[in-house]
Amino acid sequence: MAANADELLGLHRQMLLIRRFEEASAKAYSQGKIGGFLHLYIGQEASAVGAIANLGEGDSVVGTYRDHGIALARGMTARACMAELYGKVTGCSKGLGGSMHFFDAEKRMLGGDGIVGGHVAIAAGAAFASKYRGLKEVTVCFLGEGSVSIGGFHEALSLAALWSLPLVVIVENNEYSMGTPLERTMSVHDTSQKAHGYGMASDRFTSGDVLEVKRRVGEAVARARETSKPTLIEVRTYRYRGHSMSDPGKYRTADEVEERKKTDPILRAETDLRTLGLVDADFARIEAEIEFEIEDCLRFAEESAEPGEELIEAFTYA
Ligand SMILES: Cc1ncc(C[n+]2csc(CCOP(=O)(O)OP(=O)(O)O)c2C)c(N)n1
User: Fold this and answer.
1) What is the 3-state secondary structure (H, E, C) of 59-79?
2) Which atom of ligand 1 is nearest to the CA of 173?
3) Rounded to whole angstroms, what are the CA distances from 32 to 20, 68, 128, 247, 278?
4) Residue 107 domain flag
5) In angstroms, rounded to a whole number, what is the distance separating the alpha carbons of residues 166 and 129?
6) What is the atom index within ligand 1 of the atom nearest the CA of 116?
7) Are 308 and 40 in contact (CB under 8 A)?
8) Residue 28 has pLDDT above 70, yes or no
9) CATH number of the domain to which 165 belongs
10) Is the pTM value of this prediction over 0.90?
11) Distance CA 9, CA 2 (A)
């Protein structure tokens, strides 16, 4: 149960913004306004929101292609994110990256990366840079459980533990890598156990309660900041949509998905907020504010220009 209504309200609002942003982007995708890939985070919101709530300005965040929620939780604007999906020059990566490459140097959102597992090494590098410079900064890296079998994951953990880097690695275990269930790809089903091979601290919990996510990740962030020690965390979560927009999701039943929606983090936050005194009118006001923000970012993306030829040379290796 939440001790602080204001804190939970802020986290709830962020999760709802992410969900409505992604629902709007799915619609725009089906209307042909967004091209390429679109991997939705719907259902997993509490993971990014709870984790990133512990970070300050100098800290870094690295994610996979399922990055919209992570970017919004990091404080990137809905306008910059939606325009990027639309491939417009006002997007966070000038419209050249799209869904998988949300990036913002100022906010220390270092991607959005399409190479499964490879980005964990980038995160270890960012954590190394902080330590080398003597700065008390932390890097948080998000990945799916399918990435745990990739070499880059182990190389990064090995060095993070050996060099004692201020890194928090968060495996978002949504049970499926594309359409393959975890049981078919790994002999160990609790991925946090991989920490033992490197002598790292570890933790494991579900994403149902965003305050719980914040508190548990907060312990790892504090450890990284104060003692420069890495942690591997498994957040057990679930995505309601397919792997990407082109996935009809035939590898799981509709009943399974409906069952998992019962532990939805946004519903849970709403229930807790009602216990703390919020009423229908409060939630209607939040929905209206978010609807306004979503309509604004859609209009902004629609009206923005495409990237021009002048960007080709500046952003292409020769
Ligand atoms: C090195 C590499 N191999 C394969 C792929 C193709 N691929 C894209 S997503 C994906 C599944 C990853 O699943 P998981 O890590 O569990 O993350 P989730 O999509 O569930 O968030 C695969 C195999 C890739 N992008 N990069």
Assistant:
1) CEEECCCCCHHHHHHCCCCHH
2) 16
3) 19, 19, 42, 16, 39
4) yes
5) 10
6) 26
7) no
8) yes
9) 3.40.50.970
10) yes
11) 10
How close is the Cα of 232 to the center of ligand 1, in Å? 19
Please list the residues that pair with 235 across neighbouring strands.
172, 205
Q: Which residues pair with 60 in a beta bridge?
A: 139
Residue 318: pLDDT band with limits 50, 70, 90: low
pLDDT value at residue 314: 84
Q: How far is the CA of 145 from the centre of ligand 1 (A)?
A: 9
User: What is the SS3 assignment for 152?
Assistant: helix
Mutation to probe ligand 1, out of 177, 240, 260 (largest number of atoms < 8 A from CB): 177
Evaluate whether residue 226 is within a structural domain: yes
Output the CA 177–ligand 1 centroid distance in Å.
Answer: 6
Kindly state the percentage of the chain with pLDDT values over 70. 98
Write the DSSP symbol of residue 33: S
| Atom number in ligand 1 closest to CA 66 | 21
Alpha helices in the chain (DSSP H): 5-30, 45-52, 68-73, 78-85, 119-132, 151-162, 210-227, 254-261, 265-275, 280-303, 310-314
* Tokens 């995160």, residue located: 123
Determine what percent of the chain is predicted with pLDDT higher than 90.
95
Structure tokens at 305: 């220009």
Atom of ligand 1 nearest to the CA of 148: 15
Mean pLDDT across the stretch 132-143? Answer: 98
**Pick from 290, 297, 292: nearest CA to 82:** 297
Q: What total of structural domains would you count in the chain? A: 1
Residue 212: domain span: 5-303
Whether residue 316 is contained in a domain is answered as: no
| CA-proximal residue: ligand 1, atom 13 (nearest) | 177
pLDDT in tens, 241-263: 999 999 999 999 999 999 999 99
Residue 309 lies in a domain: no
Ligand 1 pocket residues where CB is under 6 Å: 66, 114-116, 143-147, 174, 176-178, 243
